[in-house]
């Protein structure tokens, strides 16, 4: 039996991870990627590998995320052995930090609720004195926080580089500078054709739509409901500093190279992925309140990026009900879930494995409930 030819629309962290997961299992893979002018959430990702606090209203998402964290070390080692590129994974645990007692109490209630629903996510609430044992440079504005030993961080740009390098080494075809606008299905031979804006087209047995914000237009063409909207996040980065932060936090993290990444905002500004003075000032001020030593650090870069979010913030992983072989995948956790996207979604979209049972929770139809209200967590 010949291996399936798969076209994956989208070469970001999500599409590249799935593509690598498919090609390593023997599928023939083609990735269609846009040009550098595209909205690229992957290149603006904050880089946390994180579970605690996620999945407050969806227990399946908690387990899915925990699985992703368990698989991450295997992916890190495999990509490094194959490409020599270090994706920067560190999993020492991570801290969420609060600036008021009420905020910390609410945090504790949220984490307890997740575990009452079966989450089984280890965490500990700490007061300021205990936090300072792990984070000695902590500012006086921080009154408490939570810690989860499963959490960590990675380097999104190096992960993306490693995935693309691995794809090439495994023989995948990567086509850059194309913007796919139309998906056509040939019922006679059961194949799909991806048609780009400039008229180029590619035919395959299966097609995976991993186009981020572009899925809002592409998914309906294969009868999958996928309302994806942009939320802007702005992030700052400092010059390289001497190591002072051994654990990532929800507000800042120090990279292996020494720079400190500060984030992030959540703004509903349409498709504007720029930066703004007021938000940069707010991020910098909060960073100094969190770690006062950062007042002496030089900021070297600020950027904005658009998160592709569903109304409830959870992913969509779904095969088309009317066009078998067409898949819609959408997730804004391209770093945290990279290993699951590779090792679970890659074989699944290739037809090598059955649909995981928990994927019923990730179907787009959940967002059609007229009586439901949604919050994406930002």
From TrEMBL:
Pfam families: DAO. Keywords: Oxidoreductase. It comes from the Bacteria. This is FAD-binding oxidoreductase. The keyword Oxidoreductase applies. Residues 6-339 form the FAD dependent oxidoreductase domain. SUPFAM superfamilies: FAD-linked reductases, C-terminal domain, FAD/NAD(P)-binding domain. InterPro entries: FAD-dep_OxRdtase, FAD/NAD-bd_sf. It comes from Pelagibacterium flavum. The keyword Oxidoreductase applies. PANTHER family: FAD-DEPENDENT OXIDOREDUCTASE DOMAIN-CONTAINING PROTEIN 1, SARCOSINE DEHYDROGENASE-RELATED. The lineage of its organism: Bacteria, Pseudomonadati, Pseudomonadota, Alphaproteobacteria, Hyphomicrobiales.
């Amino acid at each position: 039996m010949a291996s399936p030819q798969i076209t994956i629309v989208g070469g970001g962290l999500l599409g590249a991870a799935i593509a690598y997961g498919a090609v390593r299992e023997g599928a023939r893979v083609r990735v269609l990627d846009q040009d550098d002018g595209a909205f690229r959430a992957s290149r603006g990702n904050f880089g946390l590998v994180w579970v605690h606090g996620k999945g407050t209203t969806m227990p399946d998402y908690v387990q899915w995320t925990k699985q992703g964290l368990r698989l991450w070390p295997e992916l890190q080692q495999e990509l490094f052995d194959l490409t020599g590129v270090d994706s920067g994974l560190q999993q020492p645990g991570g801290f969420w930090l609060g600036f008021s007692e009420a905020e910390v109490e609410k945090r504790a209630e949220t984490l307890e609720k997740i575990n009452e629903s079966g989450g089984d996510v280890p965490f500990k609430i700490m007061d300021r004195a205990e936090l300072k044992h792990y984070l000695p440079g902590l500012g006086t504005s921080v009154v408490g926080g939570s810690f989860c030993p499963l959490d960590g961080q990675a380097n999104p740009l190096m992960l993306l580089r490693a995935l693309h390098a691995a794809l090439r080494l495994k023989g995948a075809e990567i086509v850059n500078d194309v913007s796919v606008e139309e998906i056509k299905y040939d019922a006679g031979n059961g194949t799909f054709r991806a048609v780009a804006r400039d008229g180029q087209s590619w035919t395959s047995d299966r097609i995976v739509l991993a186009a981020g914000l572009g899925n809002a237009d592409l998914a309906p063409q294969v009868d999958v409901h996928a309302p994806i909207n942009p939320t802007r996040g702005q992030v700052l980065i400092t010059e390289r500093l001497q190591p002072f932060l051994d654990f990532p936090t929800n507000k800042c993290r120090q990279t292996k190279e020494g720079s400190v990444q500060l984030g992030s905002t959540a703004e509903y500004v349409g498709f504007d992925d720029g930066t703004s003075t007021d938000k940069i000032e707010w991020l910098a001020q909060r960073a100094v309140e969190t770690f006062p030593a950062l007042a002496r650090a030089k900021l070297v870069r600020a950027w904005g990026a658009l998160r592709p979010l569903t109304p409830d913030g959870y992913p969509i992983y779904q095969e088309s009900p009317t066009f078998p072989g067409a898949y819609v995948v959408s997730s804004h956790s391209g770093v945290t879930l990279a290993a699951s996207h590779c090792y679970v979604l890659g074989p699944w979209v290739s037809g090598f494995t059955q649909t995981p049972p928990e994927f019923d929770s990730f179907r787009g139809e959940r967002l059609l409930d007229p009586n439901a209200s949604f919050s994406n967590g930002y």
